[in-house]
Write a structure and sequence with these properties.
Length: 833
């Protein structure tokens, strides 16, 4: 490539290569330059937002230089790349992360101070990039951090939603959704108006004969343009800066149709434009739920088609033969949302590139890997055949052909099991017929993985059982989730990170988290324990201040902070938690003042969003707030119990909340939470957890030891029988829970009718989530928590021991496992200068 540029030109470019700042003075120069030129402001009107903007631009310039070099290096080396396709990337804030990852936060802190700003205040100006719902989207963000840190040539592909997850307000105890318009000023994205792809919808398929061969041609229909926006992803302590490419939709052929406009059809030309822009307008706010909306399917195809076009275009530059495609490209499907990529690649290879079906299919299946994130039936994607036919007629034909060949092979292998064909068919023969996306993803991939050991076992024995028979067990594997310690320890909890570094020989543990095990030999060190406890206390003081500022409730930081923050969902059982809180309140009320004096003060902290259409989840939020309204002003109770609902839980709030927790709750009905990742964040920040034997809780227990975790409740293998018994046997409710229900029904927490459906779900409708079955064990276990917390010295020892054993849960370990077992890719060794 270089050789094509004349020597003198090349010299001129090299001579003028950009050098990034490395010290305070260099940083200040850049900030002042951006304030005065890019932002057209001055010393006299530079507020905190301007300081944030200029600081971000200074770091962005630096990142983009690294980004360019990384891309050049990857192109030059021409090794296999990974493409992570995810409809969600829950990134949170970028500035703090960028400063820490490039190792210049101190420089920025000093520089900003000289210019008159506190770095904490500057960082807080940034709006979260909230292009995701919960765990699935945040996992994608952690994976990007690890991919860059480990120097893998990797790209993320997603949608550039104009509106991310809604902002939650609590008004009169109810959730109210407010749009999240986050793009006003976003220094972290680079529009690539020259990188566009025309995406086709609707139309029909015609057969044509070209050179004696009959081919299918997908014609006419509607065209929408995809425009690339690139977000640099800096690795920690490495020059590697990878790319997250987000697609934005716009009307093809410019702003609007000038022909229509000039002929007086103004309205329709604007309507076309708006329809096109609608595709990437908004993130669907459902977590663990698919609602089958046409626009959602349009989003999926739009994003998948643009990404594949890009990937194929890049591959073609290397002029290799198609059979080498899987040696150059690994595509990971984050859940079934990008499954149409399988069909799209087959279409490109057969219809556009003219490969034979079998040859193309071999390439396709060698390229893709599929990650399943849930066994909940309501979350498994299915699309009506009629809708797919209408929107993507050629793709439906290909899906039918994929299914035909697949079922033929199944029939051959299992001639005696006729029912097998019905069970595994990609097309569900229901009314209306449906395309089962998970089955399509399995058939079109070479590996399928779950996200924690229990979950990976469950998918093999339940929802994908037949496929294990068909393909053998080796196609199915486990990669237990992880989190990036850069954001979730170093950034979220700088003081703890520093204390750990002082005992672990510096910051290397941030790149090799198993080094945390060096902490264990200091567990007995009194001074170390004291410093550890002081940091936890300071983090609690900070959260207490936030609680005071946002809710007006004063909480005592010396209380035990009990935290449950995650999406509100019946399977995650925030209802179990709040019923437990009511039980505690009733017990306290029944005590004499003398008895009360001996009780341990507690703050129960909740946070999380309910999907706007999830009525029951919204009732749960209302109950939590109603209980808080009564308990928090009860003078008999005082500091002994406070109930807080934190508004608008998101990534940046999680960074403040995780370090401030004493005990956090991960209490899903056994077998329902695929992994959970906040459990890892809380333990890594020196908190203990109470949890069921579910998802990654089980592996956390294996790593940190049974004596350092509070497990309770029924096991997943017993869930089915219990549910069966509720429906067909006599279903008696736990007597303590019954008292809680009676109190709610007395009107102690407001109009009882508001909560009747929550109670009926347990009493009358079979208690699907086993709230009553687990209630006693839950209450008892909380008593154990209280007792353990009384012995602060031992409590801190448990926390330190746990942290020292958390090395396994870094997302770096996940990425290395994916790379080795699924992608077959290697990192690119980089020279630092
Ligand atoms: N998950 O966040 C979602 N959304 C879904 O639609 C399905 C699953 C979550 O994915 C996380 C990452 O794998 C898991 O830790 C979590 O258990 C699961 O609910």
């Amino acid at each position: 490539v270089e050789a094509s540029i004349p020597e003198p030109q090349r010299e001129a470019w090299k001579r003028n290569q950009i050098t990034s700042f490395t010290d305070k003075d260099g940083f200040e120069k850049e900030v002042v330059r951006h304030v005065e030129t890019t932002l057209a402001r001055s010393m006299f009107n530079c507020d905190e937002i301007a300081a944030y903007s200029a600081t971000s631009l200074a770091f962005r310039d630096r990142l983009i230089t690294h980004w360019n070099r990384t891309q050049q290096r990857q192109t030059y080396r021409d090794t296999k790349r990974v493409y992570y396709l995810s409809l969600e990337f829950l990134m949170g804030r970028a500035l703090d992360n960028a400063m820490l990852n490039v190792g210049l936060k101190n420089v920025a802190q000093d520089g900003l101070a000289e210019l008159g700003f506190r770095i904490e205040d500057v960082v807080k100006q940034e709006h979260d990039a909230a292009l995701g719902n919960g765990g699935l989207g945040r996992l994608a963000a952690c994976f990007l951090d690890s991919l860059a840190t480990l120097n893998f040539p990797a790209w993320g592909y997603g949608l550039r939603y104009r509106y991310g997850i809604f902002k939650q307000e609590i008004i009169d105890g109810y959730q109210v959704e407010v749009p999240d318009y986050w793009l006003d000023f976003n220094p972290w994205e680079f529009p690539r108006h020259d990188v566009t792809v025309d995406i086709q919808f609707f139309g029909q398929v015609n057969k044509k004969t070209v050179g004696g061969k009959t081919i299918s041609v997908w014609e006419a229909g509607e065209i929408v343009q995809a425009v690339a926006y690139d977000v640099p992803i800096p690795g920690y302590d490495t020059p590697t800066t990878n790319n997250l490419r987000l697609w934005s939709s716009k009307a093809s052929g410019g702003e609007f149709d000038f022909q229509k406009f000039n002929s007086g059809d103004y309205e329709s030309s604007v309507a076309d434009q708006q329809r096109a822009e609608t595709i990437s307008a908004v993130l669907y706010p459902n977590d663990n739920l698919e609602r089958g909306k046409e626009l959602r399917l349009k989003q999926q195809y739009f994003w998948v088609a643009a990404s594949l076009y890009d990937i194929v275009r890049r591959f073609k530059k290397s002029r290799r033969s198609w059979n080498e495609f899987p040696d150059q490209v690994a595509i990971q499907l984050n859940d079934t949302h990008p499954t149409l990529a399988i069909v799209e690649l087959q279409r490109i290879l057969v219809d556009v590139e003219g490969l034979e079906w079998d040859n193309a299919w071999e390439i396709v299946t060698s390229t893709f890997g599929y990650t399943n994130h849930t066994v909940l039936p309501e979350a498994l994607e299915k699309w009506p055949v009629g809708l797919v036919q209408h929107l993507l007629p050629r793709h439906l034909q290909i899906i039918y052909d994929i299914n035909l060949f697949f079922l033929q092979s199944v029939e051959k292998a299992f001639p005696d099991d006729r029912d097998m064909l019905r069970r595994v068919s990609i097309i569900e023969e229901s009314q209306p017929k449906m395309v089962r996306m998970a089955f399509l993803a399995i058939v079109g991939s070479h590996k399928v993985n779950g996200v924690a050991e229990l979950h990976s076992d469950l998918i093999k024995t339940t929802i994908f059982k037949d496929f294990v028979e068909i393909y053998g067990p080796d196609k199915f594997t486990n990669v237990t989730n992880g989190i990036t310690p850069r954001r979730w320890l170093h950034q979220a909890n700088p003081r703890l990170s520093e204390l750990i570094a002082s005992k672990c020989g510096g910051n290397d543990f941030l790149k090799d988290l198993t080094i945390l095990n060096q902490l264990e030999k200091h567990v007995e060190d009194k001074q170390f324990r004291k410093e550890w406890a002081e940091i936890k206390y300071a983090n609690k003081v900070r959260l207490a201040k936030h609680i005071k500022d946002t809710t007006g409730v004063v909480v005592n930081p010396a209380s035990l902070f009990d935290v449950q923050v995650k999406r509100i969902h019946e399977y995650k059982r925030q209802q179990l938690n709040i019923f437990g809180v009511i039980h505690r309140y009733l017990s306290l009320k029944a005590m004499t003042p003398d008895q009360r004096k001996k009780q341990l003060p507690r703050v129960s902290i909740f946070g999380g969003k309910a999907a706007p259409g999830y009525w029951m989840a919204k009732q749960i939020i209302h109950l939590i707030n109603s209980v808080g309204a009564v308990v928090n002003k009860d003078e008999d109770i005082g500091d002994l119990l406070k109930v807080i609902f934190l508004e608008d839980y998101n990534v940046s709030k999680a960074e403040m909340i995780c370090p401030a927790s004493d005990i956090s709750e991960h209490i899903s009905t056994a077998g329902t939470e695929a992994s959970g990742t906040s459990n890892m964040k809380f333990v890594l920040n020196g908190g203990l957890i109470i949890g069921t034997c579910d998802g990654a809780n089980i592996e956390i227990t294996r790593e940190i030891g049974e004596s350092n975790i509070f497990l309770f409740g029924n096991l997943s293998e017993d869930v089915e029988d219990l549910r069966h018994a509720h429906t067909y046997g006599s279903h008696t409710i736990d007597s303590d829970l019954d008292k809680v229900f009676n109190e709610i029904e007395k009107g102690t927490f407001g109009t009882p009718h508001d909560f009747s459906a929550m109670i009926a779900a347990v009493r009358q409708h079979g208690d699907y989530y086993l709230v009553s079955d687990d209630f006693h064990s839950y209450i008892e276990t909380h008593q154990l928590v209280d007792e353990a917390y009384r012995n602060q010295d031992e409590w801190i020892a448990k926390c330190i021991t746990s942290v020292s054993r958390m090395g396994f849960f870094t997302s770096d370990r996940c990425i290395n496992e994916y790379a080795e077992e699924i992608w077959n890719v290697e990192p690119l060794v980089v020279d630092r200068h």
